Amino acid sequence: MIQTQSFSVNQPTRILFGVNAVKMLGALITELGGHRVFLVADPGLQQAGIIKQIASLLDKAKIPHTLYDKVTPEPGLELADQAVKLAKTNKADCVVGLGGGSALDIAKAVSILLTNGGKAEDYLGLGKIKLQGVPKIMIPTTAGTGAEVTFTAVFINEKTNSKGGMNGDPLYPDAAILDPALTLSLPPHVTAATGIDAFTHALEAFVSTQAHVISDMYAIEAISLISNNLGIAYANGSNLEARSAMLMGSLLGGKALATAGVGLVHAMAYPLGGMFNTAHGLANAVLLPYVVEYNIIGSPEKFASVAQVMGYETEGLPLREAAQLAVEAIYQLNADVGIPGSLADLNIPADKIPEMAQIALTVTRPVENNPRKPTKEDVIAVYEAAFNGTF
Fold it and tell me: What is the mean pLDDT of residues 2-14?
């Protein structure tokens, strides 16, 4: 198998992991040549005291900084343009992203726009970014997107009411600080949605048509870490061991998706975000078991491995039966952490399903990565199953 594969891996982000790792922020900024920081942060982190904590570290290091905390759960391109104007006004030469995937995506975009010019819309697609951005450091406070180690930044395009991504190696952060202590204040519902989001990244990368020995290594470990620790982190948010495992699982899931890509779950989740402003992690979580049910015949051996890693006994079972256990395992994981069982529970209108299916199929890279090639009728059927909560 390995001998027949051809792949390229480029993951340049420096990773600092551990409790209190965030205390290294000032020294890291100086090492990267930064002097004036533009801090992009989730607004909810203000109440949690995390923004104050980061500002204090910057003050202690005598590094001037400007805060931008207008981040929304599903950010539009206009937010990135608005942020870069403020960064330019304050002569920022280093960007720090603090929070969930939305904050990190805006931070990555600001870094690129400061050197490449233009508007965020100009860089939607693949390979349109020509210049490296200013140094950018990501500090995730959720164990979810893995955006701290990916070359993508995703936004709502207000003109088309659809989601799209900037993609290119210059978007890789220069460094990522992963401090499990910063995730302790995550409420259970956010822990759940972001955790299943990270799980989805790992699983879709594992069964991707672009998967290879390195991405599989990342993906299967992420699946194990997340499936074994998400319930604990959801039930007891102060469990630092579970939080650490979740943050590592999210990181490895991000590395897996950066090398092998994601699949149909993501393609189908995009219209939910673009049309109904459904949070990305929640959309992925609700759709996941239904898409896995559809995909099983495309990669039965790998889905059987997923079931086994998630603690289900597969030895001696026919391959299809073993693979089918992955659906049961994922549905149970969702249920354990309070993920709604259907799209109807999210108030998604059934009459929009054909339009959603049409849009989903335009998200070409994830569709091409999927282990089973979907038609529009297939996608409609999966949406309908997810709407009704039936397999």
Answer: 81
Residue for token digits 């992009």?
40
* Domain finish residue from 183, 212, 234: 183
- The span from the CA of 76 to the CA of 161, in Å, is 9
266 shares a domain with 345? yes
Residue 264 CA to residue 316 CA, distance in Å, equals 30
Amino acid in position 205 = A
Do 207 and 101 fall within a single domain? no
Question: Please, are residues 61 and 27 in contact by the beta-carbon 8 Å criterion?
Answer: yes
Residue 175: strand pairing partners: 14, 137
- Residues 258, 338, single domain; the answer is yes
User: In terms of Cα–Cα distance, which of 379, 139, 179, 169 is closest to 271?
Assistant: 379
**Same-domain check for residues 46 and 158:** yes
- Average pLDDT in the 222-245 region? 98
Q: Which domain holds residue 46?
A: 2-183
CATH number at residue 43: 3.40.50.1970
Residue 156 one-letter amino acid: I
Same structural domain for residues 162 and 203? no
Mean pLDDT over the full length of the chain = 96
124 DSSP assignment? B
| Per-residue model confidence (pLDDT) at position 52 | 97
The single residue listed with the structure tokens 């590094």 is 63
- At 37-53, the pLDDT tens digits run 999 999 999 999 999 99
Give the strand pairing for 37-41 and 125-126.
Answer: unpaired
Residues 263 and 147 in one domain: no
Q: How many domains does the chain have?
A: 2
Please return the burial class of 189, using the count of CB atoms within 10 Å of its CB with bins 0-12, 13-18 and 19+: middle
Indicate the residue type of 357.
A
The answer to whether residues 177 and 222 touch, using CB atoms and an 8 Å cutoff, is no
Residue 165: φ, ψ to 5°: -125, 150
Of the residues 183, 201, 221, the one at which a domain ends: 183
139-193: per-residue pLDDT in tens? 999 999 999 999 999 999 988 878 888 999 999 999 999 999 999 999 999 999 9
Q: Which residue matches tokens 């991405």?
A: 215
In this structure, the answer to whether residues 273 and 315 fall within a common structural domain is yes
Answer whether 137's CB lies under 8 Å from 28's CB.
yes
Q: Which of 378, 364, 235 is nearest to 293 (CA)?
A: 378
Residues of the chain with pLDDT > 70, as a percent, come to 99
